[in-house]
């Protein structure tokens, strides 16, 4: 009887010891899990905070840089997120020209087109973007930095800047406000990158695509536009010289 009782006590002791051991293991695993969760949370917060800070700083620097250029027309810097469908982040080695486009989407705004480019990172619908978009009311939005390529001009993506222009109807003709902003923007970019009006081309001149439609169908108006750009380059040059006095 005494032996049986002692055996039972031993078994009971072993059972309690095993339970305590399992409990310690569970507690240890729980502490490790909580620690890993805390580390991951901190890393995630650090990543998100830095991403926001970098975006804010990038926007601030670009805006400050653009505002510092004499002769530049007013424009909003609203860069699309880096992604393989509209902003691959590939650097432009040298800017040799400016390509003018039309949106082929009558009535859309500069913001509409900018948001469409940005949305491609999720829709994966196609690969397209533009450095600048000029709206119907003359507003200008920069979507891609002038140091990076945009998906707009096919074989000339790697050495040109692109400007998309909004229009009110199927003719593709620009409003007076759009035209004026386009001339001012193109003239300033030409001066900034040491280009002439002869370095300004249509998308049509690259691929044969009817873009910008109005200026493909009305070549004399395109030549007039280039002469207006030439005059604007001289105007920017004059403003720069005045600012240096």
Structure overview:
Its EC number is 3.5.1.28. It holds the Pfam family Amidase_2. GO terms for molecular function: N-acetylmuramoyl-L-alanine amidase activity. It comes from Blautia hansenii DSM 20583. This protein is an alpha/beta fold and 245 residues long. It has 2 domains: 1-68; 72-243, Peptidoglycan recognition protein-like (Lysozyme-like, 3-Layer(aba) Sandwich). It contains 6 helices and 6 strands. A hairpin with a 5-residue loop joins strand 3 (132-134) and strand 4 (140-142). Helix 3 crosses helix 6 (219-243). The N and C termini lie far apart (114 Å). The model has no long low-confidence stretch (mean pLDDT 88).
List keywords for this structure.
single chain, alpha/beta, Lysozyme-like, 6 helices, 6 strands
Give a nutshell description of this structure.
InterPro entries: Amidase/PGRP_sf, Amidase_domain, NAMLAA_amidase_2. Residues 85-220 form the N-acetylmuramoyl-L-alanine amidase domain. This protein has 245 residues and is of the alpha/beta class.
CATH fold group of the largest domain: Lysozyme-like
Main sheet makeup: 6 strands, mixed
Low-confidence stretches: none
Return the domain count: 2
For CATH, the homologous superfamily of the largest domain is named as Peptidoglycan recognition protein-like
Global outline = elongated
What is the CATH top level name of the largest domain?
Answer: Alpha Beta
Total helical elements: 6
């Amino acid at each position: 009887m005494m032996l049986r009782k002692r055996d039972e006590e031993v078994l009971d002791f072993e059972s309690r010891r095993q339970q305590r051991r399992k409990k310690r293991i569970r507690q240890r695993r729980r502490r490790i899990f909580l620690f890993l969760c805390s580390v991951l949370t901190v890393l995630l917060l650090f990543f998100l905070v830095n991403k926001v800070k970098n975006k804010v700083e990038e926007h601030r620097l670009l805006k400050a840089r653009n505002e510092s250029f004499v002769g530049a027309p007013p424009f909003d810097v609203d860069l699309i997120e880096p992604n393989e469908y509209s902003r691959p982040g590939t650097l432009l080695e040298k800017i040799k020209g400016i390509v003018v486009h039309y949106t082929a989407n009558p009535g859309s705004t500069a913001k509409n087109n900018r948001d469409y480019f940005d949305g491609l990172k999720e829709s994966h619908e196609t690969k397209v973007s533009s450095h600048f978009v000029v709206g119907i009311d003359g507003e200008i939005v920069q979507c891609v930095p002038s140091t990076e390529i945009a998906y707009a001009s096919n074989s000339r993506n790697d050495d040109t800047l692109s400007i998309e222009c909004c229009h009110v109807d199927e003719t593709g003709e620009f409003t007076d406000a759009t035209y004026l902003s386009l001339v001012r923007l193109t003239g300033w970019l030409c001066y900034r990158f040491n280009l002439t009006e002869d370095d300004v081309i249509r998308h049509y001149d690259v691929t044969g695509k009817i873009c910008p439609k109005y200026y493909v169908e009305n070549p004399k108006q395109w030549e007039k536009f280039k002469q207006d750009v030439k005059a604007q380059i001289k105007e920017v040059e004059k403003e720069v010289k005045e600012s240096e006095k």
